[in-house]
Design goal:
This protein is α/β, with parallel strands linked by helices and 250 residues long. The strands form two sheets. A six-stranded mixed β-sheet has the order 6-7-8-3-9-10, with helices on both faces. Strands 2-1-4-5 form a four-stranded antiparallel β-sheet, covered by helices on one side. It has a single domain, classed as Rossmann fold (3-Layer(aba) Sandwich). The chain is built from eight helices and ten strands. Helix 2 crosses helix 3, helix 2 runs parallel beside helix 4 and helix 7 crosses helix 8. 33% of the residues lie in helices and 26% in strands. The structure holds adenosine-5'-diphosphate (ADP) and magnesium ion (MG).
């Protein structure tokens, strides 16, 4: 059986105003790092939400880990970092360490308590992401970049096999963004985590991701950056020069 972490067949989603995703078919293999790009309102967040079961699929289908969404129960395999940081209550009196720990507790049955091994894992992760020194700070005291790393830690503390990130860096300056994408690339490599990352940075993501998915209601391109660079259809969309700059390969 082919090892598909994500697959969609003619996926179509509509809101009241009409279709926002039409006939989208693609497959993500284990270990891929897919950068999802496209204009504002092109359906990127809707695609992500459809894959997570958060919006209704009107026709076509989607599957995670070779299991159709309707049957899929193994949500512990999926880590999600949503688009909006507004979801984080800045006055919620939790420390960085506690916030990351919540990612583990959310999957535990009662009694919900962190084991010594859990605490060790949290320490290792904070260290990996360079936020050990923030462990006892309140999350309300963090900068945007620091908060992003904490939320990333919370999303990956369960060792998900698939990590889904929706414009996680929108609030960050370009340099911090680059570091964040590099950090994701490292997690992808060292832990073998498959990554879907929605981003505005179509010019930058080629430096880090292994595949590009270009969406504009329909799927206009999906493949490696080499393929992107050689695609005549993409030349007519972006122009050869930009295509080459975006590819970051040669
Ligand atoms: P992107 O993430 O690429 O900016 P979205 O998936 O958020 O695009 O939105 C795609 C289209 O669907 C946009 O036209 C947007 O206005 C519309 N849309 C998004 N969410 C909703 C919703 N909950 N109800 C109605 N329309 C929505
Ligand atoms: Mg969006």
């Amino acid at each position: 059986m082919p090892d598909k972490v994500v697959s969609t067949q003619l996926l179509t989603c509509s809101y009241r105003e009409g279709k926002v995703l039409e006939d989208v078919s693609f497959q993500v293999e284990r270990g891929d790092y897919v950068g999802i790009v496209g204009p504002n309102g092109s359906g990127k967040s809707t695609l992500i939400k459809a894959l997570l079961g958060l919006v209704t699929i009107n026709s076509g289908s989607a599957a995670l880990f070779n299991t159709s969404l309707a049957q899929f129960r193994e949500w512990h395999k999926v880590g999600y970092l949503p688009q909006s940081l507004h979801l984080v209550n800045p006055v919620f009196p939790a420390t960085v360490r506690e916030t990351v720990g919540l990612g583990l507790l959310s999957l535990k049955r009662f009694p919900k308590r962190l084991s010594r091994a859990d605490n060790d894992n949290i320490s290792i992760l904070l260290d990996e992401l360079g936020i050990s020194d923030l462990a006892h700070k309140l999350i309300g005291e963090l900068s945007g970049g620091q908060l992003q790393r904490v939320l990333l830690a919370r999303a990956i503390v369960n060792n998900p096999e698939l990590l889904v990130l929706d414009e996680p860096t929108a609030a960050l300056d370009p340099e911090t963004r680059g570091r964040f994408y590099a950090m994701i690339a490292e997690i992808n490599r060292s832990r073998g985590v498959t990554v879907l990352l929605v981003t505005h940075d179509s010019g930058t993501i080629g430096e880090y991701a292994s595949k590009m998915l270009y969406l504009d209601k329909k799927l206009l391109f999906y493949g490696s950056f080499d393929e992107f660079c050689c695609s005549p259809e993409m030349s007519s969309l972006f122009g050869e020069h930009s295509q080459h700059l975006m590819c970051h390969r040669h």
